[in-house]
Write a sequence for this structure.
């Protein structure tokens, strides 16, 4: 007896699935139908809740299941490629009502074309792959976008509850992902397609739920929103990239999504502020000291320039072997517009003379070109420049150095050293020896003479000895280079 | 100063961490929390739990332990001389945040980095302590990525690898000269030395696991690094060359490119203008060409324009194809996989589909159209049963015909 004898020729069959995601049931029925050689256009697959069947009165209707033909014992087994089974498992969860019909049609064709799944230009195969792909994507988005909120159970144990709206029938299958991840937590995922509950040991399935069934808030969400807003880099806005991965339909269940509009609106303003705060007009490096002297008077790159003081240019001829760099002009220097003429300058002159260094054969300048001060009564009190101000003014200092081209640069104090090196160093550790700059110019560092002025007694004597020794070592090195 | 709240600290330390590009949570050993005491699983595929409006995915809680730093690297917002708000987490605070976020399914795990306080060793010990508490006291089985500090002792870095899924050391800048100028406290030799040691440990641990099933894992997701693009004057060819050497010498999983972006309180040594974001994108594309499309670093560099930079208006693969037209058209019905991979507009998946389909039928142009996203882009470079691009391939204005037209406009 062949299978055909069990099938009434031309009959239609309606298969009612017990659940929209019951792949095992479909597989069982499809296997039987194929063995009975029922062609795809004779089978209707009906999900629970679907209205009627397509064949109406023509074929066996709701009771059709019972009258399915039984395959004969010697019917040849149904075969399908591994690829089909993998794809079919996913595609069966799609919300498209036509999916089971499509699956059956491909399975039917596979019996005659075993390698059909490789033909990715075939419309049925393509459609099947597309269905599977969107189910996989939906599952992936569920892994990503489920957001639990914590509530306390009556016995005090925390219970984590989430509301999620998947596009496809994936809740039951994907529950295992959350079980593996949160095995030691009590959690529930509520969706309009059914809910799953895990109590730490067993999984329970429940009926479809409503959004109101899930808790409305969790205090940790405030922290999460803070994190979301802070990790966002306003200097690189790519809204399209975000939307393609996190489409708007998911936003309503994501606590962080409410921030998105304001973050986007604020982003360009924030970046513009950042750039403006550090803005420096693009300009060419000056070619002569005279040009620098003229340009620095107009420089407003840092706030010091707005104190109402004048820019103090360095002094000396280009092409001298030594360049001496101080911190910034002081009160006297600002009034006379000449570097190192105040008390510190006089002290420096004394020590230079003692060491046998001729100040007129050196170029003397400052790391910062304007006097920074606060008013104290009638007096202008010196204030140290910040690292940023030194770095900003470095542009001028480098320009000077390039024109003067000294063999040795002497930095007086840490600010001057930063202006030349771009980093802060310890004078105590680095004094008395040469540091090589990029272009092989030697940098020597020592204390600023005003430091000596601020000390008294023994400390001052000690520092004075060190300062004199530094200058003496420098003179020797200068002589060496000259010789 | 008033005591900072946890939220204030989180804001400061997340803000400080956002210039790190990496957020990958993929490619580690599979694990789950069944039979354990805590939470966490990693199943190979990374999960992006959210996307920020900058288009970057948020997969990990990416924060610094502290943004205090004794180093003074010019491109870094946390450099010593920068005038930003400072904060410091205790290891326990980081652990609590991680677990609270993880239990609510906000994240895949933790990406922890830090400014350097006291000493490199002290800082590294603190980072390792966070990972230790998570793994040992809370049996946390999610993803941990630790940034390691090359100046720290090898023994502490080794500890980090035992707890973390991935470790990374930033090379920061593509050239040693750039590093000396912009990161005066860092040393290229030291960075590469640490990467070399990490590579050796990873290989050793893999080897031991082949022989002893319970041998400890060491950074099963490998190591990665990050390079800042546009802060110094290195061109794309130099960057590609550096990346390929890094891949070769240290077995890196990924090299991340981070377009230098203007930071608050920037140092004056830096360029103010940001490099176009597209440049970063083109570098990632060329990275992909080397890793998945069989391009040699020199070939990618050949696609660059005369200044050594990749064209911004077209992708590097198309640029290469336009320069080396003698390699085209490629016959989709006969050509080897390697040749198909060179066709602009054909990705690895499309090539796999073509190879699979052509066992069943001889492809026509319409078949190819079904297998790819844009046939218009592919057409000038292929032959099919009913298609030869006789005139197209030789046309001088081909670039104008297929290069994307639209120009990105700024919001008005």
């Amino acid at each position: 007896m062949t299978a055909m004898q069990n099938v009434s020729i031309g009959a239609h069959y309606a298969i009612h699935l017990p659940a929209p995601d019951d792949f095992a049931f479909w597989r069982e029925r499809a296997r039987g139908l194929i063995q009975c050689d029922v062609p795809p256009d004779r089978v209707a697959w009906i999900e629970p809740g679907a209205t009627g069947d397509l064949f109406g009165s023509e074929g066996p209707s709701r009771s059709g299941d019972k009258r399915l033909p039984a395959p004969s014992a010697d019917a040849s087994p149904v075969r399908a490629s591994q690829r089909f089974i993998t794809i079919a498992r996913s595609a069966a969860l799609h919300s498209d009502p036509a999916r089971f019909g499509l699956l059956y049609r491909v399975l039917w064709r596979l019996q005659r074309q075993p390698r059909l799944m490789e033909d990715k230009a075939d419309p049925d195969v393509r459609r099947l792959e597309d269905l599977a792909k969107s189910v996989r994507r939906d599952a992936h988005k569920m892994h990503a976008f489920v957001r639990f909120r914590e509530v306390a159970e009556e016995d005090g144990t925390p219970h984590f509850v989430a509301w999620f709206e998947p596009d496809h029938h994936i809740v039951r299958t994907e529950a295992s992902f959350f079980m593996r991840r949160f095995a030691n937590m009590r959690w529930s995922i509520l969706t309009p397609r059914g809910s799953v509950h895990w109590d730490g040991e067993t999984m329970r399935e429940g009926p479809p739920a409503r959004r109101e069934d899930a808790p409305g808030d969790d205090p940790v969400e405030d922290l999460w929103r803070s994190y979301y807003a802070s990790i966002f880099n306003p200097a690189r806005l790519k809204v399209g990239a975000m939307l393609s991965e996190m489409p708007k339909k998911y936003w309503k269940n994501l606590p962080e999504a409410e921030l998105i509009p304001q973050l986007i609106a604020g982003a360009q303003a924030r970046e513009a502020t950042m750039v403006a705060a550090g803005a420096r007009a693009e300009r060419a490096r000056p070619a002569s000291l005279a040009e620098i002297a003229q340009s620095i008077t107009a420089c407003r790159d840092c706030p010091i320039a707005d104190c109402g003081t004048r820019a103090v240019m360095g002094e000396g001829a280009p092409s001298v072997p030594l360049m001496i760099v101080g911190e910034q002009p002081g009160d006297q220097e600002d009034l006379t517009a000449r570097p190192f003429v105040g008390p510190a300058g006089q002290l420096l002159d004394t020590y230079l003379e003692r060491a046998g260094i001729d100040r007129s054969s050196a170029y003397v300048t400052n790391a910062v070109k304007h006097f920074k001060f606060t008013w104290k009564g009638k007096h202008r009190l010196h204030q140290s420049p910040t690292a940023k101000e030194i770095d900003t003014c470095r542009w001028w200092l480098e320009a000077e150095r390039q024109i003067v081209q000294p063999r040795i640069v002497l930095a007086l104090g840490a600010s001057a050293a930063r202006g030349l090196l771009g980093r802060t160093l310890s004078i105590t550790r680095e004094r008395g020896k040469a540091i090589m700059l990029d272009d092989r110019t030697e940098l020597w560092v020592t204390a600023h003479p005003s430091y000596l002025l601020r000390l008294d007694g023994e400390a001052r004597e000690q520092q004075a000895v060190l300062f004199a020794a530094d200058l003496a070592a420098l003179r020797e090195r200068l002589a060496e280079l000259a010789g | 100063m008033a005591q900072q709240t946890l939220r204030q600290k989180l804001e400061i330390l997340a803000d400080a961490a956002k210039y790190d590009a990496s957020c990958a949570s993929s490619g580690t050993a599979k694990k789950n929390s069944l039979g354990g005491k805590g939470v966490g699983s990693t199943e190979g595929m990374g999960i992006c739990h959210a996307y920020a409006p900058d288009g970057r995915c948020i997969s990990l809680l990416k924060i610094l332990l502290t943004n205090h730093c004794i180093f003074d690297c010019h491109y870094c917002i946390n450099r010593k001389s920068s005038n930003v708000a400072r904060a410091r987490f205790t290891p326990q605070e980081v652990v609590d945040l991680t677990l609270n976020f993880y239990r609510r399914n906000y994240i895949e795990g933790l990406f922890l980095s830090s400014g350097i306080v006291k000493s490199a060793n002290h800082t590294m010990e603190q980072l390792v302590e966070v990972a230790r508490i998570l793994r040992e006291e809370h049996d946390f089985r999610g993803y941990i990525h630790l940034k390691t500090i090359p100046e720290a002792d090898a023994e502490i870095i080794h500890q980090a690898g035992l707890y973390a899924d991935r470790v990374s050391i930033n090379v920061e800048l593509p050239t040693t000269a750039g590093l000396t100028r912009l990161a005066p406290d860092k040393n290229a030799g030291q960075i590469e030395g640490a990467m070399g040691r990490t590579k050796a440990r990873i290989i050793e641990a893999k080897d031991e696991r082949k022989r002893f099933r319970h041998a400890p894992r060491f950074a099963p997701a490998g190591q990665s690094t990050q390079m800042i693009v546009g802060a110094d004057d290195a061109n794309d060819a130099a960057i590609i060359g550096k990346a390929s050497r890094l891949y070769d010498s240290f077995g890196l999983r990924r090299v991340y490119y981070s377009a230098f972006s203007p930071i608050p309180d920037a140092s004056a040594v830096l360029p103010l203008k940001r490099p176009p974001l597209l440049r970063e994108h083109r570098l990632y594309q060329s990275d992909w060409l080397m890793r998945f499309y069989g391009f040699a670093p020199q070939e990618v560099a050949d696609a660059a324009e005369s200044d050594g930079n990749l064209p911004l208006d077209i992708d590097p693969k198309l640029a290469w194809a336009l320069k080396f037209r003698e390699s085209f058209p490629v016959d989709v019905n006969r050509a080897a996989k390697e040749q198909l991979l060179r066709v602009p507009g054909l990705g690895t998946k499309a090539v796999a589909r073509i190879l699979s389909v052509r066992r069943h039928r001889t492809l026509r142009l319409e078949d190819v159209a079904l297998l790819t996203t844009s046939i218009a882009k592919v057409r000038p470079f292929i032959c099919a049963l009913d298609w030869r691009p006789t005139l197209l391939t030789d046309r001088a204005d081909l670039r104008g015909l297929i290069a994307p037209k639209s120009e990105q406009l700024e919001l008005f």
Remarks:
- Chain A touches chain B through 78 residues (CB under 8 Å).
